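New here. Your pick:
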Amino acid sequence: MNTEFEIVNKENTPAGAIRAAVFDFDGTISSLRCGWEKIMGPMMLEFLSPHREPSDALRLETERYIDESTGIQTIYQMQWLADKAQELTGIRRDPWYYKEEYVRRLAESIAFKKSSLAGGEAQPSEYLIAGSAAFLEELAGRGIELFLASGTDHADVLYEAELLGVKDYFTQICGAPEHRADCSKEAVLNMLFDEKKFGGSELLVVGDGKVEIALGQQRGAFTLGAATDEEKRKGINPVKRARLMKAGAHAITGDFTCMDEIRLWLGIKGQAKRTAGV
Protein backbone atom coordinates (compact mmCIF):
# COMPACT_ATOMS: atom_id res chain seq x y z
CA MET A 1 0.00 0.00 0.00
CA ASN A 2 1.28 3.46 -0.90
CA THR A 3 2.25 5.31 2.28
CA GLU A 4 0.86 8.52 0.79
CA PHE A 5 -2.68 7.10 0.70
CA GLU A 6 -4.45 5.73 3.74
CA ILE A 7 -7.97 4.60 4.47
CA VAL A 8 -9.05 6.05 7.80
CA ASN A 9 -12.57 4.62 7.97
CA LYS A 10 -12.34 1.03 6.78
CA GLU A 11 -15.90 0.21 7.80
CA ASN A 12 -17.52 2.61 5.34
CA THR A 13 -16.23 2.85 1.76
CA PRO A 14 -17.76 4.19 -1.49
CA ALA A 15 -18.09 0.72 -3.09
CA GLY A 16 -18.56 2.10 -6.60
CA ALA A 17 -21.56 4.27 -5.72
CA ILE A 18 -20.04 7.74 -6.43
CA ARG A 19 -21.95 9.75 -9.05
CA ALA A 20 -20.62 13.25 -8.31
CA ALA A 21 -17.51 14.76 -6.74
CA VAL A 22 -16.95 18.19 -5.21
CA PHE A 23 -13.37 19.48 -5.24
CA ASP A 24 -11.73 22.30 -3.37
CA PHE A 25 -9.24 24.19 -5.58
CA ASP A 26 -6.35 25.92 -3.79
CA GLY A 27 -4.06 23.41 -2.15
CA THR A 28 -6.09 20.48 -3.49
CA ILE A 29 -5.61 20.90 -7.24
CA SER A 30 -3.71 24.18 -7.58
CA SER A 31 -0.52 25.35 -5.88
CA LEU A 32 -0.69 28.80 -7.50
CA ARG A 33 -1.60 30.39 -4.16
CA CYS A 34 0.91 28.39 -2.16
CA GLY A 35 2.17 30.58 0.67
CA TRP A 36 -1.02 32.63 1.10
CA GLU A 37 -0.59 32.26 4.87
CA LYS A 38 2.67 34.22 4.62
CA ILE A 39 0.68 37.10 3.13
CA MET A 40 -2.31 36.93 5.46
CA GLY A 41 -0.39 36.47 8.72
CA PRO A 42 1.87 39.55 8.51
CA MET A 43 -1.01 41.66 7.19
CA MET A 44 -3.19 40.71 10.13
CA LEU A 45 -0.42 41.50 12.60
CA GLU A 46 0.11 44.93 10.98
CA PHE A 47 -3.47 45.85 11.77
CA LEU A 48 -3.61 44.10 15.15
CA SER A 49 -0.43 45.73 16.46
CA PRO A 50 0.12 48.87 14.35
CA HIS A 51 2.45 50.78 16.68
CA ARG A 52 4.62 48.08 18.26
CA GLU A 53 6.10 44.69 17.56
CA PRO A 54 3.35 42.08 18.07
CA SER A 55 3.72 39.89 21.14
CA ASP A 56 4.53 36.22 20.85
CA ALA A 57 1.07 35.43 22.20
CA LEU A 58 -0.60 37.49 19.48
CA ARG A 59 1.54 35.88 16.79
CA LEU A 60 0.57 32.45 18.05
CA GLU A 61 -3.12 33.30 18.26
CA THR A 62 -3.08 34.65 14.71
CA GLU A 63 -1.21 31.63 13.36
CA ARG A 64 -3.65 29.28 15.08
CA TYR A 65 -6.64 31.13 13.70
CA ILE A 66 -5.30 31.04 10.14
CA ASP A 67 -4.56 27.33 10.43
CA GLU A 68 -7.97 26.52 11.88
CA SER A 69 -9.84 28.65 9.33
CA THR A 70 -8.20 27.19 6.22
CA GLY A 71 -10.85 26.60 3.58
CA ILE A 72 -13.50 29.10 4.68
CA GLN A 73 -14.47 32.17 2.67
CA THR A 74 -11.78 34.83 2.95
CA ILE A 75 -14.34 37.36 4.13
CA TYR A 76 -14.95 35.33 7.31
CA GLN A 77 -11.24 35.43 8.08
CA MET A 78 -11.35 39.18 7.58
CA GLN A 79 -14.37 39.39 9.89
CA TRP A 80 -12.20 37.81 12.59
CA LEU A 81 -9.50 40.40 11.83
CA ALA A 82 -11.99 43.28 12.00
CA ASP A 83 -13.32 42.12 15.37
CA LYS A 84 -9.87 41.47 16.79
CA ALA A 85 -8.49 44.80 15.55
CA GLN A 86 -11.37 46.66 17.16
CA GLU A 87 -10.76 44.79 20.42
CA LEU A 88 -7.03 45.56 20.48
CA THR A 89 -6.83 49.00 18.87
CA GLY A 90 -10.31 50.49 19.13
CA ILE A 91 -10.33 50.95 15.35
CA ARG A 92 -13.33 49.55 13.52
CA ARG A 93 -13.07 48.90 9.79
CA ASP A 94 -15.40 47.06 7.44
CA PRO A 95 -14.20 43.45 6.89
CA TRP A 96 -14.39 44.10 3.15
CA TYR A 97 -11.69 46.77 3.58
CA TYR A 98 -9.36 44.10 4.94
CA LYS A 99 -10.34 41.61 2.27
CA GLU A 100 -9.58 44.06 -0.54
CA GLU A 101 -6.16 44.73 0.97
CA TYR A 102 -5.41 41.04 1.40
CA VAL A 103 -6.53 40.20 -2.15
CA ARG A 104 -4.37 43.03 -3.51
CA ARG A 105 -1.28 41.78 -1.69
CA LEU A 106 -1.86 38.17 -2.64
CA ALA A 107 -2.49 39.08 -6.28
CA GLU A 108 0.83 40.91 -6.39
CA SER A 109 2.63 37.90 -4.94
CA ILE A 110 1.30 35.45 -7.55
CA ALA A 111 1.12 37.75 -10.59
CA PHE A 112 4.33 36.38 -12.06
CA LYS A 113 3.10 32.79 -11.86
CA LYS A 114 -0.13 33.64 -13.66
CA SER A 115 1.54 35.75 -16.33
CA SER A 116 4.09 32.98 -16.94
CA LEU A 117 1.29 30.48 -17.46
CA ALA A 118 -0.66 32.83 -19.69
CA GLY A 119 2.42 33.55 -21.80
CA GLY A 120 3.50 29.93 -22.10
CA GLU A 121 6.75 30.40 -20.18
CA ALA A 122 5.44 28.03 -17.48
CA GLN A 123 3.45 24.81 -17.83
CA PRO A 124 0.35 23.82 -15.81
CA SER A 125 2.22 20.80 -14.43
CA GLU A 126 4.47 23.23 -12.53
CA TYR A 127 1.52 24.38 -10.43
CA LEU A 128 -0.78 21.34 -10.30
CA ILE A 129 -0.72 18.94 -7.37
CA ALA A 130 0.88 15.76 -8.72
CA GLY A 131 -1.63 13.48 -10.43
CA SER A 132 -4.58 15.86 -9.97
CA ALA A 133 -5.29 16.33 -13.68
CA ALA A 134 -5.14 12.57 -14.25
CA PHE A 135 -7.50 12.02 -11.31
CA LEU A 136 -10.01 14.49 -12.75
CA GLU A 137 -9.65 12.74 -16.11
CA GLU A 138 -10.27 9.38 -14.46
CA LEU A 139 -13.45 10.47 -12.69
CA ALA A 140 -14.86 12.47 -15.59
CA GLY A 141 -14.15 9.58 -17.96
CA ARG A 142 -16.34 7.36 -15.81
CA GLY A 143 -19.30 9.72 -16.05
CA ILE A 144 -18.87 11.14 -12.56
CA GLU A 145 -19.97 14.79 -12.50
CA LEU A 146 -17.30 17.10 -11.13
CA PHE A 147 -17.91 20.36 -9.28
CA LEU A 148 -15.34 22.90 -8.10
CA ALA A 149 -16.09 24.94 -4.96
CA SER A 150 -13.63 27.45 -3.55
CA GLY A 151 -13.41 30.20 -0.97
CA THR A 152 -11.33 32.22 -3.46
CA ASP A 153 -13.14 34.89 -5.49
CA HIS A 154 -15.18 33.38 -8.33
CA ALA A 155 -13.51 35.24 -11.20
CA ASP A 156 -10.06 34.23 -9.96
CA VAL A 157 -11.01 30.56 -9.62
CA LEU A 158 -12.41 30.50 -13.17
CA TYR A 159 -9.30 32.12 -14.63
CA GLU A 160 -6.82 30.02 -12.67
CA ALA A 161 -8.64 26.77 -13.50
CA GLU A 162 -8.42 27.77 -17.15
CA LEU A 163 -4.71 28.64 -16.87
CA LEU A 164 -4.06 25.22 -15.34
CA GLY A 165 -6.04 23.42 -18.03
CA VAL A 166 -8.61 21.82 -15.73
CA LYS A 167 -11.63 24.09 -16.24
CA ASP A 168 -13.38 21.84 -18.76
CA TYR A 169 -13.49 18.86 -16.42
CA PHE A 170 -16.08 20.57 -14.23
CA THR A 171 -19.80 20.74 -14.73
CA GLN A 172 -19.85 23.84 -12.53
CA ILE A 173 -17.26 26.08 -10.89
CA CYS A 174 -18.25 28.14 -7.85
CA GLY A 175 -15.94 30.60 -6.15
CA ALA A 176 -16.77 33.20 -3.52
CA PRO A 177 -19.52 35.48 -4.92
CA GLU A 178 -18.62 39.13 -5.42
CA HIS A 179 -19.07 41.16 -2.22
CA ARG A 180 -21.19 38.45 -0.59
CA ALA A 181 -20.29 36.20 2.31
CA ASP A 182 -22.14 33.12 1.03
CA CYS A 183 -20.25 29.84 1.40
CA SER A 184 -19.71 28.40 -2.09
CA LYS A 185 -18.87 24.94 -0.76
CA GLU A 186 -22.05 24.67 1.25
CA ALA A 187 -24.05 26.09 -1.67
CA VAL A 188 -22.74 23.46 -4.08
CA LEU A 189 -23.50 20.63 -1.66
CA ASN A 190 -26.99 21.99 -1.05
CA MET A 191 -27.57 22.18 -4.81
CA LEU A 192 -26.46 18.58 -5.32
CA PHE A 193 -28.72 17.33 -2.55
CA ASP A 194 -31.74 19.59 -3.00
CA GLU A 195 -31.85 20.13 -6.77
CA LYS A 196 -30.03 17.16 -8.27
CA LYS A 197 -31.30 14.80 -5.57
CA PHE A 198 -28.04 12.97 -5.00
CA GLY A 199 -27.81 10.80 -1.92
CA GLY A 200 -24.93 11.26 0.50
CA SER A 201 -23.36 7.92 -0.42
CA GLU A 202 -23.27 9.05 -4.07
CA LEU A 203 -21.08 12.09 -3.35
CA LEU A 204 -17.33 12.43 -2.89
CA VAL A 205 -15.82 15.57 -1.34
CA VAL A 206 -12.10 16.17 -1.94
CA GLY A 207 -10.17 18.93 -0.21
CA ASP A 208 -7.20 19.98 1.90
CA GLY A 209 -9.22 22.02 4.42
CA LYS A 210 -11.31 20.87 7.34
CA VAL A 211 -14.23 23.04 6.18
CA GLU A 212 -15.12 21.03 3.09
CA ILE A 213 -14.38 17.73 4.85
CA ALA A 214 -16.68 18.68 7.75
CA LEU A 215 -19.42 19.84 5.36
CA GLY A 216 -19.20 16.58 3.45
CA GLN A 217 -19.36 14.59 6.67
CA GLN A 218 -22.41 16.50 7.84
CA ARG A 219 -24.27 15.61 4.64
CA GLY A 220 -23.22 11.96 4.64
CA ALA A 221 -20.82 12.21 1.70
CA PHE A 222 -17.58 10.29 1.39
CA THR A 223 -14.55 12.50 2.01
CA LEU A 224 -11.02 12.31 0.66
CA GLY A 225 -8.64 14.56 2.55
CA ALA A 226 -5.84 16.01 0.43
CA ALA A 227 -2.89 16.41 2.83
CA THR A 228 -0.83 18.03 0.11
CA ASP A 229 2.66 19.52 0.29
CA GLU A 230 2.01 22.59 -1.87
CA GLU A 231 5.68 23.51 -2.28
CA LYS A 232 6.77 20.10 -3.56
CA ARG A 233 3.32 19.37 -5.07
CA LYS A 234 3.81 15.76 -4.01
CA GLY A 235 3.87 13.85 -0.75
CA ILE A 236 2.24 14.23 2.65
CA ASN A 237 2.02 17.44 4.66
CA PRO A 238 1.82 16.13 8.26
CA VAL A 239 0.13 19.29 9.55
CA LYS A 240 -2.65 18.97 6.98
CA ARG A 241 -2.90 15.24 7.64
CA ALA A 242 -3.51 15.83 11.35
CA ARG A 243 -6.11 18.50 10.56
CA LEU A 244 -7.94 16.25 8.09
CA MET A 245 -7.85 13.27 10.44
CA LYS A 246 -9.44 15.45 13.12
CA ALA A 247 -12.10 16.63 10.65
CA GLY A 248 -13.08 13.01 10.02
CA ALA A 249 -11.89 12.30 6.47
CA HIS A 250 -12.72 8.77 5.31
CA ALA A 251 -9.38 8.54 3.48
CA ILE A 252 -6.31 10.74 3.09
CA THR A 253 -3.83 11.17 0.27
CA GLY A 254 -0.77 13.36 -0.17
CA ASP A 255 -1.28 13.67 -3.93
CA PHE A 256 -3.09 11.80 -6.70
CA THR A 257 -0.30 9.69 -8.13
CA CYS A 258 -1.47 6.67 -6.14
CA MET A 259 -4.33 6.15 -8.60
CA ASP A 260 -4.59 2.38 -8.16
CA GLU A 261 -5.14 2.70 -4.40
CA ILE A 262 -7.67 5.51 -4.78
CA ARG A 263 -9.50 3.63 -7.51
CA LEU A 264 -9.64 0.51 -5.33
CA TRP A 265 -10.98 2.54 -2.38
CA LEU A 266 -13.63 4.14 -4.57
CA GLY A 267 -14.62 0.73 -5.88
CA ILE A 268 -14.43 1.70 -9.56
CA LYS A 269 -13.40 -0.87 -12.14
CA GLY A 270 -12.69 -1.08 -15.84
CA GLN A 271 -11.31 1.56 -18.18
CA ALA A 272 -12.31 5.22 -18.09
CA LYS A 273 -13.28 6.97 -21.31
CA ARG A 274 -11.03 9.76 -22.53
CA THR A 275 -12.54 13.22 -21.89
CA ALA A 276 -11.86 16.62 -23.41
CA GLY A 277 -9.72 17.95 -20.56
CA VAL A 278 -5.92 18.31 -20.48
Observations:
- The first strand starts at residue 5 and ends at 7.
- The first helix runs from residue 36 to 48.
